[in-house]
Amino acid sequence: MTGGARRVVMLGLAMAGLAFAYLGMEASRLLAGDPIAYYTDIAVVAAGIVALWAVFARLGRHFRDLERLGDLLSMPHGRGGPDFAQAAGKDEAGRLAHALAEFLRHDRQGIARSGDRLSGVVSVLEEPVVVIDDLGRVEVLNAAASALLGIEAGGDVYDRLSRPELFRAIERAREDGQAVSAVLRRAEGAEVPVRVKDLGLQAGLVLVFPVRGADRHLLLSGERTVIRPAARAPHLGDEEPLPALPLVSLWIATTAPTPDEGGVIAVGTVRLAGPRVFRTLSLDLFVDQGGPVPAEATAVHGVTSAMVEGARPFHAAWPVIAEALHGCVVVGVGVETALAALTRACVRAGLPEPEPPPSLDLGRLAAALDPALDGASLDRLATAFGIAPNPRSGPFTPALVQAELAAALLSRLGERGVTTHGEARAVAADQALPLTATSDDGRP
């Protein structure tokens, strides 16, 4: 009871004291002729006033104790509650303080146990992982992250990573509500790929660096290094079953209306394992070509000059692009054109020409299932195979639409008897299903 309640109680006691004083004066006037009655009445009035003063003082102390308890509990994590509980009495405020102190003690123990579990999980991961608060202070990290960044718990991550670039990645992660990929510059000039995930309001952020072992030592040198080339992986043979085939949907935007011209200004990828789409394993990356984006390209791709301004040039963005494509079959509508654009960009940037990864053209697979779809656009293909429109549209939405289209096509191919990587490649090359493939319901 503080604030208005306290004022009402104190005002009531003050009025009661004035009433006693008034009664005392009236008694003195009426009993002036009877000394014994007079002094008896005065004694009773005085006792009442003293009792009121005692109640007034006790209530004043009670309210001060409650205010003090409230002030102490407003400190971070209620640090002052236990201290006040030790000095509090056995009245209502004292019992409340003791109860709150016990609650806070258990609460802190629960927080500590949760933090220990998080630290334990992070410590066993091979990739460098850092958990930071909203101010950029490191709360939890593993040994790999400490070795990569040269930082310890309690340090400021912005002393090791470019603040503007990390800010942009954090803003994208919070806007998308999922993990996003970025390339960050370290304090000594080296570049490192990272995935950023927002853990929620005032819960901090997690940074995962997709590098391991020897790759980590390359990044420590301060040189720009392609972490792993996008080479053909041995496990992507023709016998690989489609349900287990690692895939990545690739979408690019260039400074021209079509991907076979102009420079690369945006790259989007989404990972799949057969027909299973992993939306959080995605890459949304803008690339700065050093000039404005033509209006005709913006009209087609939705990428504006403001979006790419301040982004990395292609030679700095290529490591994370190569990492996203590594070890996967690349899929997309017109995927060969997109891969060719990346190869041209590597050559223009003075990078080694990458070996083309295995790929599957979704447009050709769709045409094999339904010849009427030959040459159809991504939007028409998505409609034909029941891909629901994405409620959150943006420049990188086509990468997700292609991933969902790939999942639908693989499931449909499986129903038609196409079950391996080699068979799917043959179908895409010939744009025709095997003669033994039949459909019971007549669907494409």
Ordered list of secondary-structure elements with their pairings:
Layout: H1 4-30, H2 35-73, H3 80-87, H4 92-123, E1 129-132, E2 138-141, H5 143-149, H6 163-176, E3 180-185, E4 191-198, E5 205-208, H7 213-220, E6 246-254, E7 264-273, E8 276-286, H8 295-301, H9 305-308, H10 314-325, E9 329-332, H11 335-348, E10 359-361, H12 362-369, H13 378-384, H14 397-415, H15 421-430
Parallel strand pairs: 6-9, 9-10
Antiparallel strand pairs: 1-2, 1-5, 3-4, 4-5, 6-7, 7-8
Verbal overview:
- This protein is an alpha+beta fold.
- The protein folds into three domains: 104 residues, no CATH class; 94 residues, Beta-Lactamase (2-Layer Sandwich); 189 residues, Nucleotidyltransferase, domain 5, CATH 3.30.420.10.
- It has 15 helices and ten strands.
- The strands form two sheets. The chain has a five-stranded antiparallel beta sheet with strand order 2-1-5-4-3, sandwiched between helices. A five-stranded mixed beta sheet has the order 8-7-6-9-10, with helices on both faces.
- A hairpin with a 5-residue loop joins strand 1 and strand 2.
- The termini are far apart.
- The C terminus is likely disordered.
Question: What attributes characterize this protein structure?
Answer:
444 residues, alpha+beta, Beta-Lactamase, Nucleotidyltransferase, domain 5, 15 helices, elongated
CATH architecture of the largest domain: 2-Layer Sandwich
Determine the fraction of residues in helical runs and give it as a percent range.
40-55%
Determine the structural class based on helices, strands and strand pairing: alpha+beta
Strand content: 5-15%
Kindly report the name of the CATH homologous superfamily of the largest domain: Ribonuclease H-like superfamily/Ribonuclease H
How much is the radius of gyration in Å?
A: 36 Å
Number of helices: 15
Q: Major sheet, described briefly? A: 5 strands, antiparallel
